[in-house]
Amino acid sequence: MTSTQKIAPVHGWKLRALMAVSEWLALLGISTTSAKALKMRMEKRAAAVPANWMLRPMPETGVERDTLRGRGGGAIPVKRFLPRMPKANATPILFLHGGGWIAGGVDSLDYLCTNLYDRLGTIVIAVGYRLAPEHPFPAALEDC
Asked: Highest mean pLDDT: which of 76-85, 111-120, 134-143?
């Protein structure tokens, strides 16, 4: 994802299928989450992505992407921001995005990571993790 792209909200057949399953489970008394509440959560998550005006142009750098395997076998995205002029003996920074374990992602705060490595001259390693409520505690901690 580039700094000018937005994360597309979940829609179309995926959303309709998810809503149908949610309503069916609620009718059976298996689920306590209504389809309306589920849709509101997904819309809130999509809205939590910073707007394009917040994503300032990033300094020139090398950004390396990688994927690690988590404890549960899922893919964990990792980004390494490499400064143009690294300082000798600079300690790398491990960056875990905010969002209360329910919002955000490895790409959501690129402007902050680039500001850190540009000012400090050190490598910044941003790590993604699984988000609640789809992945309840302690999934995010296990990923990090």
From this structure: 76-85
pLDDT, averaged across the chain: 76
Range of the structural domain that residue 109 is part of: 52-143
Side-chain half-sphere of 81: how many Cα atoms within 13 Å? 27
Do 103 and 37 lie in one domain? The reply is: no
Tell me how crowded residue 89 is: count the other CB atoms within 10 A of its CB: 6
* Separation in Å, CA 21 to CA 41, 102, 110, 136: 16, 22, 35, 19
* Site of tokens 């899922």: 74
7-39 tens-digit pLDDT: 455 566 777 777 778 777 777 777 666 667 777
Q: Determine, yes or no, domain membership for 67.
A: yes
This prediction has a pTM of 0.57
The token pair at 71 is 């404890």
- Pair 127, 61 in one domain: yes
